[in-house]
Amino acid sequence: PGSDWVFVFTVCVQPRDGVERGPDLIRAAGLRDKLQGQGCAVKDYGNLAFEEFANDEPVGRVKNVRSVGSANQRLSEAVQAVKRDGHTSVMLGGDHSLAIGSIHGHSAAVGELSVVWVDAHADINTPLTSPTGNIHGQPLSYVLYELQSKIPVLPNFSWIKPCVSAKDLVYIGLRDVDPSEHHLLKLLGVKVFSMTEVDQLGVSKVMEETCDYLSARVKKPIHLSYDIDAIDPSVTPATGTPVVGGLSYREGVYISEHLSQTGLLSAVDLVEVNPLRGRTEQDVQSTVHTAVDVLLGCFGRRREG
Ligand SMILES: N[C@](CCCC[B-](O)(O)O)(CCN1CCC(O)CC1)C(=O)O
Ligand SMILES: [Mn+2]
Ligand SMILES: [Mn+2]
Description:
Blueprint lengths: L5 E7 L9 H7 L2 H7 L3 E8 L16 H20 L3 E5 L6 H12 L3 E5 L20 H5 L25 E4 L6 H10 L2 E3 L1 H7 L1 H13 L6 E6 L21 H14 L2 E7 L9 H18 L7
Parallel strand pairs: 1-2, 1-3, 3-8, 4-5, 4-7, 5-6, 7-8
The structure holds the ligand N[C@](CCCC[B-](O)(O)O)(CCN1CCC(O)CC1)C(=O)O and manganese (II) ion (2 copies).
């Protein structure tokens, strides 16, 4: 509050099954007014228009390669512009494949990053290990230096340069990790606070250890990539891949409140809100309002008032 935060929404719309409606619902829930109400300056860049690809046939098993590659290249350029203006970037998805462009653009502007990945899933499948071929389960494989030998040539992906070290990545909320992903996480020694650790340590200790781990070497700007499915489906059911046993509303908001206090939060993704996956309007509204509250927590809102 009172700080000269500037929020820029690079809102990304992918021609997908409902997740493209997430950004407008989050706007309609009053994110801009609520941010301004807590002393933030807000600039909404509107929705990014993406090129449509008529027959975007799978490459191997990877689906929507050309449209996702092209969309992320445009997103990277948009996020770079936002960061070059000295703003904090907020990317509203859309699905988690958009983290490719968001992280790439953020790093192109500010250099080395810390990445905090809040998610039920690890999203670190490579194109060859993915069980579904969906790129929203693969974004980290394209941006991690250590996995570049595992990435085949893909159309509209050649612009991507790896930009994150495995030691600068921390996961919070994991509870549905594919065997191939688990192997990679162990191989690379990635720091993971799964739901087991959240239960064992409590969210306060998890956040303390996350920040100590990330600042143990050099303090870097933080890229928070927040998948709404990290939170329990009883709170945020309107999402594509819900998994039981998730974060409570309070834990979900505490994570963003804590990161906000570090003063290092430099870019935020809020993804996978999909109104078509809510069975009732209440399901959709609960999901959208929780997403808004997570974002307000990123920018200084404290529940004490
Ligand atoms: N790991 C999954 C899910 C990715 C979720 C992406 B998100 O952005 O929401 O984090 C596959 C999940 N797994 C496939 C086999 C099933 O039996 C269980 C779910 C994949 O498709 O790669
Ligand atoms: Mn997920
Ligand atoms: Mn995800």
